Request: fold
Amino acid sequence: MEENFFERVYAIAKQIPEGKVTSYGAIAKALGTARSARMVGWAMNASHNREDIPAHRVVNRKGLLSGKHHFDGTNLMQQLLENEGIKVIDNQIIDFEKHFWQPEVY
Reply:
């Protein structure tokens, strides 16, 4: 089940447009498993060896880069977001609502 869940998480993560972010909880809700935000986080942590998953675009519900310690280099997650035009100050996305992407519910 876990592997299948992770792949479903990745299918949604791949849809996040450049310059947009979503949250662990929004992905969980889209999968119909609203209480599994933590498992979505585990899936994103497990994806760091896969270049096809834009894990840097998944943040916590407040726009914090809560998964940044899973990226190589201290500020890689922030740099990837800033390269897409998203401003980050103190690990917090500025204008989070403007950049937020809501995945479709399946």
